[in-house]
Amino acid sequence: MRVLFLGTSSGAGKTTVSAMYCRYLARKGVRVAPFKASNLSLNSYATSDGGEIGIGQAFQAMASGAVPATDMNPILLKPSGNGRIQVVLNGMPYADITDDTPLDIGIATAEACKAYDRLRERFDAVVCEGSGSPAEINLRGRDIANVGMMRERNIPSVLVGDIERGGVFAALYGTWKLIPEGQRGLLKGFIINRFRGDPTMLGSGIASIEEITGMKCLGILPYADLRFPEEDSLSNSGGRMSGKDASSAYLENLDSLIAEAERCGFDFEALKRIAEG
Amino acid sequence: MDCIRKKVKEEVERGRTGSDHGCPYHPSHFIGQDCTFCFCPFYPCEDARFGKFIESRRGRDVWDCSDCLFIHRSEVAGFVLDEIRRTGFEECGDERMDEIFSDAKEKFWRRGRALMVLGATSDAGKSVTVAALCRVLHRRGFVTAPFKSQNMSLNSKVTRTGSEIAMIQALQAQAAGLKNTDYHMNPILMKPKGDMVSQVVVEGKPFADYDVSSYYSEFVPGPGREAVKRNIDFLLDRYDVVVMEGAGSPAEINIYDSDIANMQAAVIADAYCLLVVNAEWGGSFAYALGTVELIPENDRKRIKGIIINNVRGDTGKMRSGADELERMLGIPVIGIVPHADVKLPSEDSESFRNSRTVGTGSMRIAVVKFPRISNFTDLDPLFLEDTAVVFADRPEEFDGADAIVLPGTKNTISDLEWMKENGIAAKILSMKGKVPIIGLCGGYQMMGSLLSDPKGIEDGRPSETQGLGFFDNVTSWERYEKCVRQERGKIIATGGEVTGYEIHMGGTEVRERPLFSIEGFSGNADEGSVREDEMLFGTYLHGVFDTQDFRRYFLSFVKGGHNAPESVDYNEYVDWNLDKLADVFEEALDMDKVMEIIGAVR
């Protein structure tokens, strides 16, 4: 099983939805691992073998009941100011890149694919997360974690759209339309995240998007004021946490999220068919 | 009437005054108004474009034209004065006045033009774009008004006529230089009451309560639409340009036909539209493309330009994507606007996400918001305590703090310089010994006396930098290598448990008492620095607040007690920021194109 969750923007909820699905599969006894080919984050985590990965994958590993490993996030990009970005490759500092000396996308993609293949060997399911939006047409050809992995490994994909900011139908349709034709067919479904209110109001909009794009709506996830570790920015800082330590609080929050999703009729079966397809 | 006649006679004898800055009521309409005719020679003109009859307190019909700006336009005042002098009139009622009035209207009155700013999402930057355009047009001499059909906000302001409008439209009116802000600029205001019911305020007065479905089925098609039309007409009769703001996204296809805040308002006002997308979250091209293409073709034609807003870093990087978007849509990208570092009041619940304060507890923890802040999830466990955590990047935001955290950073040296330049370093030094201060990783390195980077490993160029001097430690970067490891140990002072992990470049020669004793293969090792009497703490451990033991240890030094922040002249501060905002937009937008879209060539 493998599936790639793509976001219509940063902060759309990819990390959380991926973690939720990791936790869901782990509770069913599936040996599952998270994967994010490349991550732009200053929040990192030290693995037990002394490597460095993004905090999001450490959290997803925890949700999977797996030990965080460098294969789960083979490329970590850490902006260090003055236009320089430190590249951490397979957990180790590799090089500093700048506009004039950019990352070799060929090498990076090859390394990401190797890490992904190793996880596929070791686990029954690999839950992948994209990075940012897959529709940044100004960066075409430099994308590894989204269209890059779709192209290299044909991973069936699901779009996560954030409805809290509005414009979710435009975002889902626009993202779908801007995915290169060769990969567009891998987009099998979409999820509307952070909804407040009466979901029946969305019916006609969802039906239009399903009809235009052929993607299936897997569900509407309700707005949940729950806190999870964050990678990208300070903008979403907030949310509830309770308990004595952070990690058990995060897991408890994931369990309530799964319960909420099930209550709202989230189609985990359809998602499973996509991941197995 | 006799009184007005007398006044007008005096005005004609006095001649042109321009803006009367000596008048205690000035400016009562807009900044730059002409005060030659404080009393209008045409009163009561009974032209419905300029005023209306209202009932006086004594029950008589009175002509009310307090919102008319016509006679206060300098070209009108000049023309009227010249004509009166030329024709040598004696009395206001003189029929020659009617001729002058029709000549003036013929010559100078024209219905204004509307420009609508749509957003691909909430928080796309519609409000600031409208504010910026209002200020730019005002500075270019256009009498400009903001407008938004409906607003959902608990942040409202009371106008001089006692009506309630959204705070943000009042701010945009200030940007336009207006002093006569009123409900016309925001005729429908929804105030959430809970249980999915909102109180709907129409033209400044509570109208009725609606839930979502009755709002769309009953209010919108009837009274809602009428209110929008009435007030757009009102403004277009009086202003050169009305800059309209949409609400949320105009492409909510599930409610498209009952959305009077976006395309329907554009149709009513016959407005051309600009679409703003926020680049900050990514996906901006997809949002722009999706928004335009989901709008039905007839309305889509009104969209004449796209603005990519809030771009951090090099705006040129967006150009190739913008060009492709132009080709796909046939609509020009008229501006790629950089992130504007301005401080303006924020509007709605959606903006609380950008709130700088997390939590409402009694202990106020100020965290230095470094430009390269990293591992700020270290602070998460503090939210489990009775805290309000403020991410602060200005010295005054540390006033009243009960504790200070210097978090991790990806570039210790440049963020230390940043903090020295903006006065935060001095502010924190002045609070030493009064509140507990803790440095984590990069923040801990800064707390030492010296930071030495002879090979430019940390900052890209060789440097030697004075630290804050809280500790006598010296940090140096000798090799391009990183320490990455997980740790577990004890707080030396209490014996309590601590866990965490280290990720850093550079090493520190510690000349202080250690904070922790870390378990290792070859016995225990000291970590961190502490001066309990001065309430100073520093450690390389990330996740240090994860254990309750350390959280409680640190927070035990917090005394509490709040000081009121220093007051500044808030209005001037806002105005200064509006100018700064307008500068950013004027620079980034193709203003010739904007003027062409408005059709406002004078």
Descriptive notes:
The complex is a heterodimer of chains A (277) and B (602). With 277 residues, chain A is of the alpha/beta class. Chain A has a single domain, classed as P-loop containing nucleotide triphosphate hydrolases (Rossmann fold, 3-Layer(aba) Sandwich). Chain A is built from nine helices and twelve strands. Chain A has helices spanning 14-27, 55-64, 105-122, 147-153, 168-178, 181-184, 203-213, 246-263, 268-276, and strands at 2-7, 32-35, 38-40, 44-46, 52-54, 75-81, 84-89, 92-97, 125-129, 157-162, 187-195, 216-222. Chain A has a six-stranded parallel sheet with strand order 2-9-1-10-11-12, sandwiched between helices. Chain A has a four-stranded mixed sheet with strand order 3-6-7-8. A two-stranded antiparallel ribbon of chain A has the order 4-5. The longest helix of chain A has 18 residues, at 105-122. The N and C termini of chain A lie close together (8 Å). The model of chain A is unreliable at 233-237 (pLDDT under 50). By secondary structure, chain B is an alpha/beta fold. Chain B folds into three domains: 2-108, no CATH class; 113-151 and 220-347 and 571-598, 3-Layer(aba) Sandwich (Rossmann fold); 363-555, Class I glutamine amidotransferase (GATase) domain (Rossmann fold). In chain B, strand 9 and strand 10 form a beta hairpin. In chain B, helix 4 packs parallel to helix 5 (167-175).
